[in-house]
């Protein structure tokens, strides 16, 4: 078996419990995160006695891309950064291990939400100073990248965007065409939506027979990708872990359908049932997102505020962003991106065989619960997870978050049979090392997003 085939065929997931569900202030070879990483690597066969935890994964001179979850610079729920982003200690430990393995180049990169203040995030986490110091000391470390082509800020609820901030030649365009998992739910009515973004742009990238993604070139040029997700509940997908974290390899939001216009009663998956108020609110958001006039945007925003107040008064807690278990779109986008990562070539096509080694190391030391991914509450699990296959990793991650994996479309469908598959094994074949299966079923409530409570396991899981 080739090393890249392990992406598909290895059902093992390793879990190591740290002495405490917290992070060290400084990273070194003997700090708790580095020791846990070393244990995970040994359990999964990643380690080499001479070249460290990733010595059997990274060949000397290889190009390595480390992909953390840097979703936003602040927790919208006021719960702090620990349950929100991949902690700096995990990023530092993975980078040190990649350099020790002899990588020729190591890059850390992500595309957080467009409103993220990347410099603030890196500064407050300590990663900015760390990266500057490390790159000066070791030229094989090429620093931290922001893969976003468009950024924005919101002023009084109105979006102000800055477009084309990175040149197009730093990205590769992939078109999965009719082999996209989105094709089955694509119509002629331009129904795909991302909240706060112009739906006309989505219609250009996703239509019958056309499903395009814009991937950072440095991701596809990497020989090895080390995926470092934060384990969290997620309002639109149920959870974010190894699979969902790969959304951050795409450069522009208009390539990422999140849900479809309308409620389930009229063929959409934006919210359950039907609602005159919600249909009106969708109309208002479309007008706001398609006008170039800041004055008009402000007026439409004021109308949206009033409609949201009406929803709040009626007790609605799902909204119109596809934040429920009937969202039949976001899992398709996410799995498409995982297929591109595994099979994508630098000419913008997908090969028949896996093209690069991808491994997954999950920060579940302080996980996130509640209204993630942007307003996560801390869930102290004290765990570092690892695996070669993202579906297997997410299967275990879902259980740790108190879900029944089969009730999460993102996890369930990752094991399905389609072109450019993500697995060659079934959920029943997932193997867990380091924790007992019983530990995944211990009593204790995990807070799930309102729209995903029906996906919870009968016995809520918390470790």
Looking at how many chains there are and whether they match, the oligomeric state comes to single chain
Q: Counting H and I runs of at least 4 residues, what is the number of helices?
A: 12
Give the biggest sheet. 10 strands, mixed
User: What are the secondary-structure elements, in order, as H or E?
Assistant: HEHEHEHHEEEEEHEEHEEEEHHHEEHHE
- Overall mean pLDDT: 94
Structural class: alpha/beta
Catalogue the unreliable spans. Answer: none
Strand content: 15-25%
The span between the termini is: 34 Å
Alpha-carbon Rg, integer = 21 Å
What's the β-strand tally? 17
Looking at the structure, what is the overall shape? globular
Fraction in helix: 25-40%
Would you write up a description of this structure?
There is one protein chain. The chain has 463 residues and is an alpha/beta fold. 27% of the residues lie in helices and 21% in strands. It has twelve helices and 17 strands. The strands form four sheets. Strands 1, 2, 3, 4, 11, 12, 13, 15, 16 and 17 form a ten-stranded mixed sheet that branches. The two termini are 34 Å apart. The mean pLDDT is 94.
Please sum up the structure shown:
Helices cover 27% and strands 21% of the residues. The chain has 463 residues and is an alpha/beta fold.
Task: Map the helices and strands.
Blueprint: H1 6-9, E1 12-17, H2 32-44, E2 63-68, H3 88-100, E3 105-110, H4 118-125, H5 127-137, E4 141-146, E5 151-155, E6 158-162, E7 171-175, E8 192-193, H6 199-205, E9 206-207, E10 210-216, H7 217-220, E11 224-228, E12 230-234, E13 238-240, E14 259-260, H8 276-290, H9 294-313, H10 330-343, E15 357-371, E16 375-387, H11 390-400, H12 409-414, E17 431-433
Parallel strand pairs: 1-17, 2-3, 2-11, 3-4, 11-15, 12-15
Antiparallel strand pairs: 1-16, 5-6, 7-10, 8-14, 9-10, 12-13, 15-16
